[in-house]
Amino acid sequence: VQLQASGGGLVQAGGSLRLSCAASGSIFSLNAMGWYRQAPGEQRELVARITSVGSIVYADSVKGRFIISRENAKNTVYLQMDSLKAEDTAVYYCNLGPFRGVTYWGKGTQVTVSS
User: Fold this and answer.
1) pLDDT of 11-28, one tens digit each?
2) Residue 98: exposure state from Cβ atoms within 10 A (0-12, 13-18, ≥19)
């Protein structure tokens, strides 16, 4: 399984970005997908997660501003990020699983929010 995240960039505070994560393979629709982020000097943290049946969990810090969704036909999970804040600046990673005990991670995409 390979995951490819895209959509990061530089945006002003209050702006929006949409991240995408495309997965290879045929197990996408059977698995939970998540977005995590890691700021410099900080631990990686959960941003949002969506299960195979569409149950969603958000970090308190992004509730009401971010929306996670998935499109199984395209093996893709999205993260719509609105009302961005400087504290949202981080490298964002997507993951899949666990599948048979393994969690797969993509390379991150940098999101920088200027204040």
Assistant:
1) 999 999 999 999 998 788
2) exposed
